Structures are given as C-alpha cells and as structure tokens.
Amino acid sequence: MRHAQSVLENGQVLGMFPEGSRNKGNGLRTAKSGVARLALATGVPIVPAALHGPQYMFRRFPRRTVVRVRFGAPIEPQPSETTLSLTTG
C-alpha cells in the first residue's frame, strides 16, 4: 500500500483489482477498502474498468482471445466521504 500511494503521489497510473483477487467469473465480489483508502489519501480519482474476455483465454488456447476493456466515468473522492461510501457505490 505504501508503494501504491507513492506511485499515485508521483502522478503515475495504478491499476488495482478492488476485490482483492481474481474472480472466476461468478459475478462481482464485495470490494475491499484499499482502492478507496488510496483515493482518499491521495485525492486521485477512481476510474472503474471492466474486463471481458480473460475468462476465455485458456478455454480457447492456443487461439487468440479478444479481451475488451471498458472504462466508466471517474469517481472523484470528496474529503467528507468514507471508504465505505466509495466502496459500495
């Protein structure tokens, strides 16, 4: 978390999976508070992203798999918000 915070404070981009681990395609799990804590500590926006396709990568191996990435609108953390309010949306 310290390294992630220093990356953000240096103006770099950081990608995180807010669920804490990979998901086997059974819907979304509950997000952990790490992304929200970093956003509140650094004041950087959270940009939601969805990946579609990686779940098929090894089913079609060795063929290529199309992976789509979609980005949502940035979520600007407000100082009055809590990690819970940012995590549950």
Report on this model:
The structure is a single chain. This protein is 26% helix and 9% strand. It has 89 residues and is of the alpha+beta class. The chain is elongated. The mean pLDDT is 85.
Rounded to an integer in angstroms, the radius of gyration calculated over CA atoms is 15 Å
- Give the tally of β-strands: 2
Distance between the termini: 22 Å
Average pLDDT over all residues: 85
Strand order across the largest sheet: 1-2
> Helix content range of the residues, please?
25-40%
Shape: elongated
**Weakly predicted, low-confidence segments:** none
The biggest beta sheet, please?
2 strands, antiparallel
**Order of SSEs, N→C?**
HHEEH
Output the number of helix runs: 3
Say what oligomer this is.
single chain
Beta-sheet strand percentage? 5-15%
**Class derived from helix and strand content:** alpha+beta
Describe the structure in brief.
The chain is α+β, with helices and mostly antiparallel strands and 89 residues long. It has three helices and two strands. It has a two-stranded antiparallel ribbon with strand order 1-2.
